[in-house]
Design a protein that fits this description.
Chain lengths: ~110, ~110
């Protein structure tokens, strides 16, 4: 069964550094998402992406965050200057259409030191 | 107030027991999702429903749109069912998911 893959599984970065989290969504899906989960808290929406542009973003997704689909397969989340509070599990998800099951990757655990 | 509330937060059951996890929401929705999160962190979608009832193996999900309430039932529970079960909704005009806090289920042999 096709799946969403995320790399790396764990990223450790110094505060202030840039980090790029990578995702390969399921190939025939058109809607892409990033969510994050701070340890011990619920999963929170960051951003949705469709037709090569952001369709919705949360208050969390400020100017330090950006997303890109640089080619036909990858979907990336960049944090320009990381803060301690960016430490979390970041999940990528994809869906075939607007309201359909979202398929999640296994997540990238980001640790900011 | 959270838009999606789950109960209980923690649940311990004996193998073979019938389990119910509840979800209430306060926003208009286009669909409700039940997801499973294992200790390693990965999230798996179990159900998406907008009305009625769905069944998959030992799992049953129901939704009452008028009461803004959904339940996830597990029949003949097994230790491998131990996980966090999460309710999430698509708000009416959006395809983002709004998550509940999850229910930590431990099934003891």
């Amino acid at each position: 069964e096709p799946e969403v893959t995320q790399t790396p599984s764990h990223q450790v970065t110094q505060m202030g550094q840039e980090v790029i989290l990578r995702c390969v969504p399921i190939s025939n899906h058109l809607y892409f998402y990033w969510y994050r989960q701070i340890l011990g808290q619920k999963v929170e929406f960051l951003v949705s992406f469709y037709n090569n542009e952001i369709s919705e973003k949360s208050e969390i997704f400020d100017d330090q965050f950006s997303v890109e689909r640089p080619d036909g397969s990858n979907f990336t989340l960049k944090i320009r200057s990381t803060k301690l509070e960016d430490s979390a599990m970041y999940f990528c998800a994809s869906g075939r259409d607007e309201v359909s099951t979202q398929h999640f990757g296994d997540g990238t655990r980001l640790s900011i030191l | 107030k959270n838009e999606v509330e789950q109960s209980p937060q923690n649940l311990t059951a004996q193998e073979g027991e019938f389990i119910t996890i509840n979800c209430s929401y306060s926003v208009g929705i286009s669909a409700l999702h039940w997801l499973q999160q294992h200790p390693g962190g990965g999230i798996v979608s179990l159900f998406m429903l907008s009305s009625g009832k769905k069944k998959h193996g030992r799992l049953i999900a129901t939704i009452n749109i008028q009461e803004k309430h959904s339940s996830l039932h597990i029949t003949a529970s097994h230790p491998r069912d131990s996980a966090v079960y999460i309710c999430a909704v698509n708000g009416g005009a959006t395809n983002k998911l709004i998550f509940g806090t999850g229910t930590l289920l431990a099934v003891q042999p």
